[in-house]
Amino acid sequence: MGSKEREIKSPEVQLGENNSDSGKRGSKKLGIYFIESDSRRTPLGRGYSAGVGGATPVNIHGKPIRDMSKTGGWIAALFIFGNEMAERMAYFGLSVNMVAFMFYVMHRPFSSSANAVNNFLGISQASSVLGGFIADAYLGRYWTIAIFTTIYLAGLTGITLLATMKVFAPNQEGCDQIALLLGNCKPAKSWQMTYLYTVLYVTGFGAAGIRPCVSSFGADQFDERSRNYRSHLDRFFNFFYLSVTVGAIVAFTAVVYIQIKHGWGAAFGSLAIAMGLSNMLFFAGTPLYRHRLPGGSPLTRVAQVLVAAFRKRNASFQSSEFVGLYELPGKRSAIKGSNKIAHTDDFRCLDKAALQLKEDDGTNPWRLCTVTQVEEVKILLKLIPIPSCTIMINVILTEFLTLSVQQAYTLNTYMGHLKLPVTCMPVFPGLSIFLLLSLYYSVFVPISRRITGNPHGASQLQRVGIGLAVSILSVAWAGVFERYRRTYAIQHEYEASFLTPMPDLSAYWLLIQYCLIGIAEVFCIVGLLEFLYEEAPDAMRSIGSAYAAVAGGLGCFAASILNTVVKSVTRGKGERRESWLSQNINTGRFDYFYWLLTIMSVINFAAFLYAANRYQYRTKDEIQTTDRSSENGPGSDHTSTNASDPVRTPKLSVVG
């Protein structure tokens, strides 16, 4: 190729030099060696800023940070916590209030209002991959957050205007509770609903851009080379979810109180004000933040790997034309913001994208990709089963948000002389999360450390598994209690009065399922976020974090689809036309529906155990680069990074 080439030998080859038999066995593996070429250009034809390589933190101008002690760390993370707290407050404030707003103010049926909000929540989460793509490809996480928080604020302002100005809502005269139940209230005009959906989805679009970036940007503030990095990262994700929980608690209490006392306009306005203040707080921390360079379009890199592998699908690794697997020399990879990734034997068909034949000159990334680029695609594929198994817990969370509120309307919500609004009931999962996170390091970690031997108490996948198991208990209990509540309502002649609370049956029996699902959420979602951040490729961490949001969005969509299917299948013929999910909860069969969710959750848990058992944590190998003339002597440059899992692999030597 007219350029200096280097050979990267695997541990099998090194052993083979001392044992010819083992060398022959090792020569059959793909990871034996691959050729590096100085003529290789980056996937998008761009180079590096001076002095910047790999995953080196930079300042807002893209320059290396000279004094790391003045940036990042917990102080910078506090500004990010504040932004996430306000964003979650707005998100949960909308989710808990918008169903009631559409029912009481816009005069939409309760079931269609719930489905509309579920779709809004689903779209805002599922489209988070767009925010992750923009951050990883072009803008970086900071500017993506800055732009989309502004869009979020614009959407909240539009919702506040909707709730404040009468022109945007239908006439409310003569629309009492009986008229609402009978559907006799004047419906909203088409343009009014269009405006509502427009501002609602603008808000969702803003949330979609923020969600995959905030947790990753916060984790970027900690130095990977620090001895305490794993401990800091573990605590960061717990405190991050604590800020999410605080935002949810405020939404379920203070915002609901404002709505009851001062109306819908004041409630939604408080969310807009909180978001505006959080934006100011986020921008105030700008001098303290550490940034990672965007690595170019991840979709382009994925497409290049797939195209190159397809073009060489008929090439053989045993062919005489086979030169090696292709990589760049030195410590830098072809992808900005990323370290090199060692070759693995998974998805061997994709290795053909890095298969260098004699006619390849290394200048066309659509024909020849680096090993690191191929391994990025492999990692993205290997991650998919784990977040996919968390879709089910998001289905349960979505169903609880609406079905449990319907249950609470039939129950006594008095706490002594204090009557708790029904819309405040979802605060109890938040309180259980807050309590659990507060006790996590003092109670759970020491106990589980003795059982598992893991210094962090439990591995990331173990925590996800614990969360999924507890979610099964939560939804199973919900079915048991709903059967008791329905039987009680029928026996005491409340069957037709599904909006009348039964004074002798307390709503606080719902606390059991609420607290269990809160515990499940802590273990599952926090473990998943940390897992995705550590396991995702360096230049695709926002997209990795978006996997969790996409799973949440698919859970919302799945809940809506499941509701529709169950209503259609279980609706009776003739005189009895009530489905399991009847608007009259006392004539419906919510208990059957909860048990259906229980069965689905058990099947999902079995699938998770299979996927988790097969998954191997990614290891970050120590790569050493030397010249051939002095491969055992001094003068070699190397980088060393701690592995993210106790299981270590041998070193990968780069010999020139």
Tell me the strand order in the biggest sheet.
Answer: 2-1-11-9-10
**Helix fraction by DSSP (H/I, runs of at least 4):** 55-70%
CATH class (first level) name of the largest domain: Mainly Alpha
Parts with pLDDT < 50 across at least 5 consecutive residues: 1-54, 621-656
Q: Would you tell me which CATH topology of the largest domain applies? A: Growth Hormone, Chain: A
Strand content: 5-15%
GO biological process, one term: oligopeptide transport
Region (Disordered): 1-27, 623-656
InterPro entries: MFS_trans_sf, POT_fam, PTR2_symporter_CS
Family: Belongs to the major facilitator superfamily. Phosphate:H(+) symporter (TC 2.A.1.9) family. Belongs to the major facilitator superfamily. Proton-dependent oligopeptide transporter (POT/PTR) (TC 2.A.17) family.
Account of the protein in words:
- With 656 residues, the chain is mainly alpha-helical.
- The chain has three domains: 61-293, MFS general substrate transporter like domains (Growth Hormone, Chain: A); 294-373, no CATH class; 381-614, Growth Hormone, Chain: A (Up-down Bundle).
- 58% of the residues lie in helices and 6% in strands.
- The chain has 18 helices and eleven strands.
- The chain has helices spanning 11-16, 20-26, 73-104, 110-126, 128-164, 177-182, 190-219, 229-262, 264-284, 298-311, 371-383, 385-388, 391-408, 427-452, 460-491, 510-535, 541-570, 590-614, and strands at residues 5-9, 33-37, 322-325, 355-357, 411-412, 414-415, 418-419, 502-506, 623-626, 637-639, 652-655.
- The strands form four sheets. A five-stranded mixed β-sheet has the order 2-1-11-9-10. Strands 3-4 form a two-stranded antiparallel sheet. It has a two-stranded parallel sheet with strand order 5-8.
- A hairpin with a 2-residue loop joins strand 6 (414-415) and strand 7.
- The longest helix has 37 residues, at 128-164.
- It is globular.
- The two termini are 16 Å apart.
- Residues 1-54 and 621-656 have low confidence and may be disordered.
